[in-house]
Amino acid sequence: MKQLLLPAIGLIIVMVIVAVLKAILSRKPTGKELSLYEKEDGLMSPAELLFFRSLEAAVAGHFRLFSKVRLADIVRVQRGTDRSSWQSAFNAIQSKHVDFLAVGPNDMTIQFVIELDDKSHQKQSRQTRDAFVDQVLIGAGIPVFRFPAKAGYSEQDIRSRLFEEDKNVNHAVEGTAHPRRSPQR
Predict the structure, then answer these.
(1) Alpha carbons 155 and 118: distance in angstroms, whole number
(2) What number of other Cβ atoms are within 10 A of residue 10's Cβ?
(3) Residue-range domain boundaries for the chain
(4) Three-state DSSP class for 92?
């Protein structure tokens, strides 16, 4: 009798555990959990917004700009990579963002990335992250331009840096692709 009772008790315990787990996983967030979130003040910091306005004027008509784009949305792990390597490579890029992305105005093709470097970029951990992001982008054929954060920006200086310095960026409206080599910084 005891031999029949033990498996039945074990089965009942497993069924209870499964039911509890199912209830926990299928439960909808309560009002209290939803109240843990609040709206950010804005998409960009004041320094980023100041630079963005000048950048937008400098590239007007040539490119469309997006801010805070996830790195994994503009580069992908190479096809044919084994599953373990793919997962490791994807994990390394999935939570990183770039400050600004320039795309072709008509076809939305990726043209180049612009990073705005404030004082936080002087920290070793940030420099390591920046070097990794630069390597990923350049390896994928996406030029990266870094601008130091400052109190004001000249549209002409930005334009000169993007369009004239070693012909780093071709005008997307002329239908040319981004350069194959990395831009000088």
Answers:
(1) 19
(2) 10
(3) 2-34, 46-174
(4) helix
The CATH T-level fold of domain 46-174 is Trna Endonuclease; Chain: A, domain 1 (3.40.1350)
Distance CA 182, CA 112 (A): 10
Confidence of residue 182 (pLDDT cuts 50, 70, 90): very low
User: Is the confidence at residue 43, as pLDDT, over 80?
Assistant: yes
Burial of 92 (0-12, 13-18, 19+ CB in 10 A): middle
> How crowded is residue 57: how many other Cβ atoms within 10 Å of its Cβ?
13
Measured between its terminal Cα atoms, the distance across the chain in Å is 81
Residue position matching structure tokens 């074990």: 10
SS (H, E, C) 96-123: CEEEEEEECCCCCCEEEEEEEECHHHHC
* Bridge partner residues of 117 (DSSP): 148
